[in-house]
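Here is one record:
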Amino acid sequence: MMSNELKRKWIALLAAAMLLGGLLSCANVASPNGGPYDETPPKFVSSTPAPGQLNYHGKRVEILFDELIQVDKPQDNVIVTPPQLLQPTIKTMGKKIVVELHDSLQNDATYTIDFTSSIADNNEKNVLENYSFAFSTGDTIDSLEVSGTLLYANNLEPASGIIIGLHRDLADSAFVKETFYRTSRTNDRGHFTVRNIKPGKYRIYALNDQNRNFRFDQKSEEIAWSDSIIVPHFEFATRQDTIWKDSTKIDTIKTVNYTHFLPDKIELRLFAEKYARKYMTRPERLLDRRFTLHFNSPEPTPVIRPIGFTPADSSWFYIQKSDEGKALNYWITDSTVWKRDTLGLSVTYLKTDSAGIDRPQTDTLSIATRRRVEKRRKNEPEPLPKLAITVNAANAFDMNDTLKLTFGEPVTEKFRDTLRLQLKSDSVWKPCDFTMFPDTTDELSYFILRKWNYGEQYRFNIDSAAIRSVYGNPNDSIGAEFNIKSEDSYGHLFVTIQGLSPDAHAYGELLNSNDAVVRHTPLKNGGLLFMDIKPDKYYVRLIKDDNENGKWDTGNYSEKLQPETVWYCPRMFNVMQNWQVEETWNIHAAEFTKQKPLEITKNKPKDVKKEKRDYKNEGKSTSSSSTNSRIRGLSF
């Protein structure tokens, strides 16, 4: 006979098994999903006028699609050419796009409405790529095309949303005096196609048109141009189109005839001329004894006149420049002045007027201090002010690092002899030579230069009260010890350059994964040598230094001067510790558009193709997950 206790356990186990079976049977039931999702872009149905219609003189264009649609930022993404000085009205009405032109129509002209990739269906946002519509006010419709790529000249980043224009007038003055004949706009990859062109000869330009007048009339506008004359033409060609059964099996390969429009690989490099309007950005007074005038560009010393107070003498401040000369720090040496809560000042400086001419400008400023009251105990004496000094001597010093000394206040007296740099030799500290020079970007900082050797040990010292600021404040003693890293801590990279003439002047830059410059080296004996670099992944670019000044220079349209050429090596260099990498780079091997590695490209192209949704299985994972959580909650 089975005991009552055993019967109860069997009954409980049987009930649990039945419950588990029921839950598992429910796990495969998915909620209804309504069938396949729409994964195709909108399709053209009809239009008024018809596509390619001749002798049409209306100013309204209506285009009907097979589903509800939307146009993304039409004022930015839709280009009407010939250029419209009066912006057209572009709106959607359900399945229809309506374009109303407000400029007078030209006679015998082909009009193109290029929607680029701005049209998408209203629900799933499937994009209709590179759609354009054309009609003609004459007896023929022009059909030639040219295409290419626009990249920024200094870093080969794709330049998106920039106007590309053609001029039939081949004179240089056309770019600054006339509107374009035909236009287009670059996409997120910097690619462009100018459509519906008449046969003939043209000049091609790029323009970041800030005032939307389709000509280069502001020095701040970014530009590009080709030195070659463009002659649009075409040829009949064939290509192979592959139809896939699935992701791994090919169904058929078809040979397709098509019209190949040329040229189709125009290369343009976008740049801004060396020009900046001069103006003051802001004044501030973060310390009682210092006020700062900030400018947008390096500024010669302005004329400062006090308002409402009279300093003890004319030399009541000491000027110190920072931020590469764009910030002027005025250290006040007259105590009757720095104790004032607010300073009234008349400041005369150079400011660029609307005509682009630098003229004297006088501003009246009222600069208040941001005084911070420090809490001290009752009867606690005020601490004696000290001259703050910092030095960047880390324990492990890099072979290419430079010792940097920074003061908290200006120091006018000579202090070179108060600095002591010592080298440890046979357990004995011995004085060693060094050179000192000021930091041109910050006059409170100084560099201490010495050629380091692998594994050396150094000590840097300044005695207390050895240096005083312009306020007479002495320094506290400062000392630091640091070691130069050993040779096996580094790697080396040598890149042999091919494709550049032997007498060309150029330099290379070693870049990190953020496209930031890590090292700069001249081209010597046909190669770039980067010694003693930290183990890491690096990239390399080469700059053709036409004027031999060791830096990249922009172009100038009036002088017909193109910006200096920049090449990117399309591969990554993995430099390991105690390792030497030697590579050869032909700077012309990779196409213009494929030079810069995607890993360090900041303006990465958008993926307009939507990932296909697994509508058959959607909903299953939710039910299964819910079931699993309920099963885990069971206890036996």
